[in-house]
Write a structure and sequence with these properties.
RNA-binding, 3-stranded antiparallel sheet, 8-stranded mixed sheet, about 425 residues, alpha+beta, 19 strands
Length: about 425
RNA sequence: GGAGGGAUGCCUGAGUGGCCGAAAGGAACAGUUUGCUAAACUGUCGUACUGGCAACGGUACCGAGGGUUCGAAUCCCUCUUCCUCCGCCA
């Protein structure tokens, strides 16, 4: 959520930045300014009336104490009409505040300066390309056939016990999952991130805090009896650890990492591109979350991007880095890098990580601030990134490392898997 | 699941209808003193909205939301959460 004051004072700039996203409802900006104007007026009137009411109440108290009962009764009588106005105004205020809020949450974050204008994935900017595509033998298979051939991931079995998109990992497949999780967590710890283990279900307030609610309600599994949501990413619980918190400037930057399963309903997405591991309802991911000083967030974004790339390099995967164009970025992001690995068997790029700077968009809603040297509280900036999401990494490893007599395990993983080949 | 007791500022903790945005102590920060450390002394020490160039004001907030009242941290209702005891249990 953008800050109203900023919108009010930078209307032109806001509109200009939104156009980078190809945002379809620029009129929302003026609506917000109008609601804000209304809100402040109502607030002022209400405050004035409340001041009068407070004064009268004080007066009554004083008169009563001095035994001047009749005069007190007189003042009491006068307050009646004021009381009605106060009630009316505070109702009005609540309404206009709700309107303002509803409009504000519909406004996406403003793209950063470097974000290219555009509305489709084709307009994303390829920042860099690393490594070489794997050279596969003639009988190379896509991963969903490899998993069946070596009996390491069973999609049908998952369908039986739960439904489509809930695979069962078996034997070396399960072991590979655990190896990757440990590898990612170890590397993150080495890079200075603190490992956290967080709940996999969150309450409504947390959903609001990171922006999944109210909009993307349909993306999350919802336990209605308890009104809890299964997390779509560790970003939600980890970032919400800092909801309603005022940090000391010295506490920054905060670097957290967490492994969690992620649950996504992904309603209505079935087809060729979501086969096998490409898109699941439940998958594993190691996430990075940082809370940083506003002056440092873009620098941090570069560092996080470099860190994620170092993982891909260690795994020996051919990958590229994209800077998403305005229209392809998530609603809350100010700038996003996507990392995509090449799937030689599917002959296409698979998104395995997304690293974003949210600037103050999340922290404004989270009320996550820090107190600077001057004693002034300011909104911190948040960033997060996947490091990494497992399924597509597994898909890429299986496909790119396949040989005619089995699948090789990347060198760095062997000490975690305890085997160097799946056959 | 049953019974009872709590939730106040960074922390401890006072406050049972007006003089309370809130005592006191501690912590922290700044200054004075000081050979150094410590101590002592003085001051600062919640958040948000809002008016004002500013000085300085107004309003709201004592777990959350409603209610009673001229007036609520204080009384009533609902919810959340913590603690103690009992029951159950990986």
């Amino acid at each position: 959520m953008l800050q109203v004051n900023y919108i009010r004072e930078n209307r032109e700039k806001v509109l200009e930045r939104l156009s980078v996203r190809n945002f379809k409802q620029p009129e929302l900006v003026d609506e917000i300014i109008k609601f804000d104007e209304e809100r402040r007026q109502t607030q002022t009137s209400l405050d004035n009336l409340s001041a009068i009411a407070n004064a009268s109440a004080k007066q009554v108290g004083e008169l009563m104490r001095n035994g001047k009962k009749e005069e007190a009764e007189l003042v009491k009588a006068e307050t009646a009409s004021n009381k009605e106005s106060i009630k009316k105004l505070s109702d009005e205020l609540a309404v206009v505040e709700l309107h303002l809020y509803n409009a504000l949450v519909q406004l996406p974050n403003l793209p950063g300066e470097q974000v290219p204008t555009g509305s489709t994935p084709e307009e994303n900017e390829v920042v860099s390309l690393h490594g070489e595509p794997a050279q596969l033998h003639e009988k190379a298979l896509p991963h969903w056939e490899l998993t069946a051939k070596y009996d390491i991931i069973d999609f049908e079995l998952g369908t039986k016990i739960t439904g489509a998109g809930f695979p069962v990992y078996k034997g070396k497949g399960a072991r590979l999952q655990r190896a990757l999780i440990n590898f990612f967590l170890d590397r993150a710890t080495e890079a200075g991130y603190k490992e956290m283990q967080v709940p996999l279900m969150v309450n409504e307030a947390s959903g609001f805090g990171t922006g999944q609610l109210p909009d993307k309600e349909g993306q999350m599994y919802h336990s209605t009896v308890d009104n809890l949501y299964l997390i779509p990413t560790a970003e939600v619980p980890v970032t919400n650890l800092y909801r309603d918190v005022i940090l000391k400037e010295d506490d920054l930057p905060i670097k957290n990492t967490a492994y969690t399963p992620c649950f996504r309903r992904e309603a209505g997405s079935y087809g060729a591109h979501v086969r096998g591991l490409n898109r699941l309802h439940q998958f594993d991911k190691v996430e990075l979350v940082q809370v940083v000083h506003p002056d440092k967030s873009y620098e941090t974004l570069e560092q996080m991007s470099a860190y994620v790339q170092s993982l891909l390099q260690e795994l020996g995967l051919h990958y590229r880095v994209l800077r998403l164009c305005g229209g392809d970025m998530g609603f809350v992001a100010a700038m996003t890098y996507d990392m995509e690995v090449w799937s030689a068997a599917q002959q296409r790029w698979l998104e395995v990580s997304s690293v974003s700077n949210f600037e103050a968009y999340q922290t404004n809603r989270l009320k996550l601030r820090y107190k600077g040297a001057t004693g002034k509280t300011q909104l911190a900036h948040t960033l997060n990134g996947s490091a990494l999401a497992l399924p597509r990494i597994v898909a890429a490893i299986l496909e790119n490392y396949q040989t005619e007599d089995g699948i090789k395990i990347p060198e760095v993983l062997v000490k975690y898997t305890g085997f160097d080949k799946i056959d």
